[in-house]
Specification:
heterotetramer, A: 122 residues, alpha+beta, Sufe protein. Chain: A, three-stranded antiparallel sheet, 5 helices, B: 378 residues, alpha/beta, Aspartate Aminotransferase, domain 1, 12 strands, 14% strand, globular, binds pyridoxal-5'-phosphate
Chain lengths: 122, 378, 378, 122
């Protein structure tokens, strides 16, 4: 069902955990639907220097969170915002069709975290 | 590997494999008149007798099918006359979906509610039966939460009202007594691959005198109720599996109960967890838990990584996103329903395996809770 | 024993038996998420790819069923919209009976006539197609008389009129080319036990984009078109059998043709006998004869006593009293239709066996004619 | 499908053949239906002293002819007339339900043969 990359991220999640000193936090999803993702970002000079996340959900949701965190760490906010659903799926070596929604959820959580950071900065 | 998913399917046992391998030598078509055909016919009819003994019915009441799904479809879609149909709200999809088809054909279908343990109340069935009710379908035991229904009482209600009763006994056959006559059941579905028999074969008990329309028509096999060249080697294997399961039922079920009870008590110690289904009226081999704040699929996969094979809900709905209709029917909150894990024991399982499964579950639940944004509350 | 009833069923070949035995080890439920389930899922999907290669279609176009009968039933009863349906008058009962069910559901069903060789005329099909025709069902080769239809021409007619074509290829798959795309077929039925695979498994090719309703509903397996736990070991065995049959098809069919031609010339020397079906456009393994003044069943049984296994008409109608609808459709007199014997060759048969079968038939026909009140005329 | 007795009569039909010097002949059935039986009887002093038959039909038809010929040889016409369908089936160790009609056919042919004899004697 899952690619080896998905299973790898599921087994060994990268950047997993809460960032106590996060600059921005964003949550997406609803436990009622079975998936909730929370992204934490630490930003310096417009760059995401550290990422953290917490996820309630299936293996795909966990792997997607892990993958996205890896994809954006070290990237500018601009670049991070440009990550697409397809890019995450590709990064993971593909996702089963019924699991594609996980990528939207992850991007939504990330965007909320960025927004949260930007609004706090104002 | 510690296999704890016997409700999904079971490995074919040695004796059955031997019977199947032997039966592959009997290769004639049972409908052929020559000696090779006659041999195949005899193998099928002997198997029918064996299965009939296991079901305490007559051989003429056994219709071989391609499995539990076909047996359930035949029981419902085979109804010759339109009318009102009652199905419990926790039936297997292979009953619920055909019930949906009946609605499109002009039948009226209502769902019988269950209590928080998943039990159907026979009195409620009596109340819901109408003058035009043609069939009640209540499963013997639920494949997810393991609750065993009071089928005899439900059967009595049906008999008293002259309504047919269909019982999906796929999960109980070989584990607890399945006696269509004592149940007052008119139609009973059973499946081979749940009792260490080959996949792709099952049967429907059709009480003498009950009229059904065939679902698969053609050559007229199974006395016209199920056409198609008989799956000889599958039928032989199924009969062997049924014979053994029923013979060993009492001792094996007692053994499984002990393992199950240890599993339940072990898993109950995990914080924020609870057992689903009835604490007593449950399958001897089923333990079904919700672990709050984690999602079942990831738990299943992580347990699989540890060599422990379990399921979320039923195997066939594993790939869906909706939480189980069974867990919703017993009143679970959706977020809790997502966190369910089913352990179903079988022949090969030992006490040591159960201990390992408990330990592994503790670890996995803890790990997933660390990852989860919910800690101790939603 | 000289088995000459390969159209009824075939023995499972060694390579298939090995594949099946191995597949029994892969016991998980393909719908289970854990490692055991994943293995079973992989076995099913690999088999689907193998079968797709044999049918030169894509794996998504293969729906596994419990056999040819279910495939045919699904093709007909699965039609989503009412309309006019054409079936040839010599179809297998598993097409004709479902066609009858369609009539009860408001479809209009007409039978396409055949000529004295059992051939359907594509132009006749074109004439019979109406604006509201939704399906044409013509078998690739007839299971009794062995006549092979001009399916490509019929397919072209259907394609030109935008009508679906169903082809029952149960008797041709593995013997002559079965290429749904070249046939212009939308639905094609195949069965495992006719090609040295296990009984109880088959498949329906469903062309991409063709909509069907499931016959067996439930867990949603086979992309919702056929619910029920997959018959993993059966599917693996079927795929293996298909792979081998297609790989060996050319050489084996040429070998069978030679045996068949010898059989036909030998049996033709029996006085008052004649070949049924087309002399050239016929299955490589089929010889179907009428022997006047004797009755087929007694010939079959007497040949069986001599160790020669053959059939009257089709296996599944062997127990009926009516003369075959196929022989009636090609214009045989009833008394002659009663005297038919079908010889169908296969892998194990040799030239010596064919000679023995001819000799035995001569003896048996003579003996029965001695018993018969009809001598040389009716 | 068939009992051992049916198969025995089928394999080794008793009294089979035309009686050239028959006192009575009777035919029943129709080749169109797949079964024709012809009975020949030789009668002395009201007793059937010899029987012959010819049958076009299935194994059950052949076995039934053979069995009936055995049952009636040496019997009086009276007794022969009293043979029932059930008696033949029993004599054969049972017959499949769809083959029961063979016994009617055999009895019909026999009765016609007796009638033929009686009418010829008048
Ligand atoms: C209660 C119940 N009914 C029916 C079925 C379907 O049986 P099968 O898998 O043989 O089609 C199952 C299992 O899948 C089941 O658990
Ligand atoms: C032409 C044809 N179609 C369909 C079938 C039915 O296939 P199965 O025996 O797999 O149900 C058969 C054989 O029985 C056949 O010969």
């Amino acid at each position: 069902m899952y690619s080896e990359k998905v299973m790898d991220h599921f087994r060994n999640p990268r950047n997993q955990g809460k960032l106590e000193d996060a600059d921005g936090v964003g949550t997406a999803g609803n436990p009622i639907c079975g998936d909730v993702m929370r992204f934490y970002i630490k930003v310096r000079n417009g760059k995401i220097i550290k990422t953290g996340w917490e996820t309630f959900g299936c293996a795909a949701a966990i792997a997607t969170s892990s993958a996205l965190s890896e994809m954006i760490t070290g990237k500018s906010l601009e670049e991070a915002r440009k990550v697409t659903r397809e890019a995450i799926a590709e990064y993971l070596g593909g996702l089963p069709p019924i699991k594609k929604h996980c990528t939207s959820l992850a991007l939504e959580a990330l965007k909320k975290a960025i927004k949260n950071y930007e609004e706090a900065g104002k | 590997m510690i296999y704890l998913d016997h409700a999904a399917t079971t490995p074919v046992r040695k004796e059955v494999l031997e019977a199947v391998t032997e039966a592959f030598e009997i290769f004639g078509n049972p409908s052929s008149l020559h000696a090779a055909g006659t041999k195949a016919r005899e193998a099928v009819e002997e198997s029918r007798e064996t299965l009939a003994r296991a079901l305490r019915c007559s051989p003429e009441e056994v219709v071989f099918t391609s499995g539990g799904t076909e047996a359930n479809n035949l029981a419902l879609k085979g109804l010759p006359e339109r009318g009102h149909v009652l199905v419990s709200s926790i039936e297997h999809p292979s009953v619920l979906e055909p019930a949906g088809s009946l609605e499109k054909l002009g039948f009226e279908v209502e769902r019988i509610p269950v209590d928080r343990f998943g039990l159907v109340d026979p009195e409620r069935v009596a109340e819901m039966i109408r003058k035009d009710t043609v069939l009640v379908s209540v499963m013997h035991a639920n494949n997810e939460i393991g609750t065993v229904q009071p089928v005899r009482e439900i059967g009595k209600v049906c008999r008293d009202s002259g309504v047919l009763l269909h019982v999906d006994a796929v999960q109980t056959f070989g584990k607890i007594e399945v006696d269509p006559k004592r149940m007052n059941a008119d139609l009973v579905s059973v499946s081979s691959h749940k009792i260490y028999g080959p996949k792709g074969v099952g049967a429907l008990f059709v009480r003498e005198g009950v009229k059904l329309k065939p679902l698969l028509s053609g050559g007229g096999q199974e006395r016209g109720l199920r056409s198609g060249t008989e799956n000889v080697q599958g039928i032989v294997g199924f009969a062997k599996a049924a014979e053994l399961a029923v013979a060993e039922m009492e001792t094996e079920s007692r053994r499984l109960e002990r393992l199950r009870d240890r599993l339940i008590s072990g898993l109950s110690e995990i914080p924020d967890s609870f057992l689903n289904g009835h604490p007593k009226k449950r399958l001897p081999n089923n333990a079904h838990f919700c672990f709050r704040f984690i999602e079942g699929e990831s738990a299943v996969l992580m347990l699989s990584e540890e060599g422990i094979m379990v399921s979320t809900a039923s195997a066939c709905s594993s790939r869906k996103l909706e939480p189980s209709h069974v867990l919703r029917a017993i009143g679970l909150r959706r977020e809790e329903a997502h966190g369910s894990v089913r352990y179903t024991l079988g022949l090969g399982n030992t006490k040591e395996q159960v201990e390992k499964a408990i330990e592994a579950t503790e670890r996995v639940v803890e790990k997933l809770r660390e990852i989860s944004p919910f800690k101790g509350k939603w």
